[in-house]
Amino acid sequence: MAVRLSILTSNSPSRDRQRQPRRSGCILAGWRAEGRPASHTWRSRATIRKKLKGKPMPRRTARANTRKSAVREAVEHVFARQKGPMALFIRTIGLARARTKIGLANLTYNMQRLTWLWAQELSI
Asked: Which candidate, 12, 3, 66, 70, places its Cα nearest to that of 31?
């Protein structure tokens, strides 16, 4: 299902130009999906949802939380490894240097992981 975006414009004659989109949080202010109310806000799909007090958690929510936890588990251990034993701390001037530092840390992690996998394969 394709969702087309349309620009919200002002009705005043002095402002006949279309507004430029501004970022506010995770949505573009001034933009809305057609067919949705203008008050509709987007919710993050990455957050784990809690159950309501005194009520059981719906199965749909529990399954969604399980999927999110699996993805989070696969990703966060890499960051923990880089922050802990590799002592990754990014304090640079400029985005290019920060990207380079992160890229080198990822390369180092991947090389360490590959050597560990090779050692595991040889020991079998």
From this structure: 3
CA distance 30 to 10: 10
Q: Where are the domains of the chain?
A: 43-76, 90-123
Q: Which residue has the tokens 């159950």?
A: 51
Token look-up 């919710």 returns 43
Neighbours of 38 (CB within 10 A): 7
Q: What is the pLDDT of residues 3-59, one digit of tens each?
A: 444 444 444 444 444 555 554 444 445 555 556 666 666 666 777 788 888 999 889
Q: Tell if the pTM clears 0.70, that is, is over it.
A: no
